[in-house]
Amino acid sequence: MSPRTVDVLLPLGLDTPYSYAVPEGLDLEPGDLVHVPLGTRGMIGCVWPGGGSAPVDAAKIKSVKAKLTFPPVPPDLLQLIDWMADYTLAPKGMVLRLALRHGESPGPQRERVGVRLAAGEPSRMTAARAKLLAFLADGFVRGKGEAAREAGVSPSVVDGLVDDGVLETVVLPPEPAAETPDPTHAAPALSDAQRLASDALQQAVAAKAFSVHLLDGVTGSGKTEVYFEAVAQALAEGRQALILLPEIALTQAFLDRFTRRFGVKPAEWHSGVASRRRARVLDGVAKGEVQVVAGARSALFLPFTDLGLVIVDEEHDPAYKQEDGVCYHARDMAVVRARFARAPIVLTSATPSIETEVNARRGRYGRLALPERFGGAKVPGLAPIDLRKEGPARGRWISPRLAQEVGETVESGGQALLFLNRRGYAPLTLCRSCGHRMKCPSCSAWLVEHRFRRRLSCHHCGYQAPVPEVCPSCNTKDSLIPCGPGVERLQEEVQTLFPEARSLVLSSDLTGGIERMRAELDAVARGEVDIVIGTQLVAKGHNFPGLALVGVVDADVGLGQGDPRAAERTFQLVHQVAGRAGRGAAEGRGFLQTHMPEHPVMQALVKGDRAAFYETEIAARQEAHLPPFGRLASLVVSATDGHAAESHARRLAACAPLADGVRVLGPAEAPLAILRGRHRWRLLVRAPRGFDLSAYLRHWRAAAPKVTGNTRVAIDVDPLSFL
Ligand code: ADP
Ligand code: ZN
Prior knowledge:
With 723 residues, the protein is α/β, with parallel strands linked by helices.
């Protein structure tokens, strides 16, 4: 008799599962994680649905070694993995890997040890021992570390008293991964508009069915407040909720708000969480003990077993798109997971992506609008400053009018924010003597000077070098000069213009990590800074009550570089930044420095006419058959040898299948022609809406010549980046 077999998918670059024999007495279900032999090693894999019947040579087949005690992958997640692999063309095993906590194993649970008072007498008494004994006099058990910390003594004092028999040790139960949020802890009084939206969302949760809602509200309208009510509904029904945030590492403020509403913090899930803690969260999610997870895009792959609600906060944020390895958009995949889990999903934004806006217009997504700020504060308008007519002097970036407005704001005790989406001191360094430009040795990109760190750095590959004293090309001393502004250089200008004002640069280059960032953001919120100079980092979700003025230093950055999403991105960023101002008592004001005030995006921003922006942009996309009115996929062929990349790209283009309405553009050298030492050639596929692009790409890939050497082809379905 041939042995029972199962299909096991391994977290490797493979599309199909392998068959393994099931040992006598072992019961395996799809989703179970198992240890299997592979080559000379062992590996963790996932029992895949649909296997088990293939006749396999009994002598050759290897056998499952063991079933792991890890939580199994739930059915909706198995479906998501299948669906994503099919849609993105990534190997199924690599998608599975996203769900196996990035392939790392959690390791054994560390035992927690507590201490309490016992009968013994201390061999000697010291001040520290007396302090600790006084703290433990009530006879309660305390964690060892906690006891030392709370009593203000070193852990060795605890150990000493344990050795003397004065304290005894007790094994404590493992700490819960998260405490249980209380849906009734501090329910807010909602405005009428908020109530309408929150009722609709609560009904969607109660319906226990798949639905998509766009919670569309201006910045400060209380979107968070409203979706918390949907979370409360899920909690009241004893179900789980997932909240995706674009940049969780910076959203301490979000965790605090959640705590105020529900009494405890949600479980956090992102790369900054220690792996042991992540293992506990994962376990808690699988067992249903963790009810709410707030996390980055990878939280999408957690083994929720009773998902009652998914929220994608700031759904338009490009941070949701993952661009290496498995290329996927976490917002879109969240919708897919919600569909498989039969759960409602809520997308929130003050500036929805064109895709989502069109879905709402077509009625595929329900729209819940919050047109006004809570408490009646006004979203500031933006006054244009035409840089062609009233620009600053050469080598300066703040126009006289903006400078005057900032000065007046600070004088009257308000805060100002200057927004420039360029990190560092200067985007280009060149030699005054020979014109040489400092470039990255492995990318076709200029090196950006970072003056705080005294280095030149490549923003694409992370290469760094000190600023040389002589020009590397002509050897002239002290001839290198910075060109163009970055936030650090802007601060220099601010310090010259307003020597009395307290200024602060906020960008992702801040040394000191997340902790420092949180501290700085708090300082701004407390009013300890007069002028904030920030990159897109400041556009996201922060609440600065004292902020009265926002100046967009260069609204044109990013526009006109052949990126079809540049207009949308500019609109979203500037709108979000402007939304930071005027949240508190002071009325907000905004200024927009631009060389093209007549550009439709600038016009829409100046008039505060969001509808006009969407009209123009949607019409333009429709006209050009761009998403969501057509579909795109990009193929980037790269190799260390430029000719190899180019010739493979050409052979690939030559064997593109013919299909009605499908056009293959290129190959063309990528705008970022060299990245990390690899030459890059791009192909772009344009297809009609509703066309099965994934199937097309699959046919194409099957017919394509084999790649040789280190040539690679990276496929990105629904690309956001065109670099
Ligand atoms: P959004 O997410 O739309 O930008 P928030 O949810 O951050 O808006 O709300 C903006 C501010 O208004 C926050 O400080 C929030 O606490 C406050 N707020 C909104 N709605 C209410 C409410 N119903 N009761 C009390 N405060 C509210
Ligand atoms: Zn580089």
